Amino acid sequence: MNSPNSLQAVILDMDGTITAPVIDWHNLRSTIGVPPNETIMNHIRSLSIGKRQEATRILLETEMRGTEGVALNAGFEELVTKIREYELMTAVVTNNHGAAMQRVIEQIGLSFVIAI
Predict the structure, then answer these.
(1) pLDDT tens digit string along 5-53?
(2) DSSP-derived secondary structure letter, 87
């Protein structure tokens, strides 16, 4: 079936769109010491090499733990049905580490044209 309005692709976010959020970002920010008005990644990039490595390790461990028992967000299966019905290309975009993203994609059994 052709997509409405010549739509050819859909870009999806992972946390909160595809999957139900499970990571306690507030706690993670506190653990790493991220100031209120700064992003986690910008803060990590600003750290000295030793602190940067430790913060990156904590972030990755937290994200990988967050992939355990991941659940699809309510309504996502219906969305996927429509996406497939319209034969749309799909991409997933996330701020999460690539390894965590790949694990989630494998667990939920979906494939994407692009995953970044």
Answers:
(1) 688 888 999 888 888 888 999 999 999 999 999 999 999 999 999 999 9
(2) T
Look at phi and psi of residue 75 and say left if phi exceeds 0, alpha if psi is from -120 to 50, else beta. Answer: left
User: What is the number of structural domains in the chain?
Assistant: 2
Residue 106 belongs to what domain range?
A: 1-21+70-116
pLDDT digits (tens, 9 = 90+) for 57-101: 999 999 999 988 888 888 988 998 898 899 888 888 888 888 998
State the virtual CA torsion across 71, 74, 78, 79 in degrees, nearest 10: -90
Residues 6+ apart with CB under 8 A from 4: 86
8 A C-beta contact, residue 88 and residue 8: yes
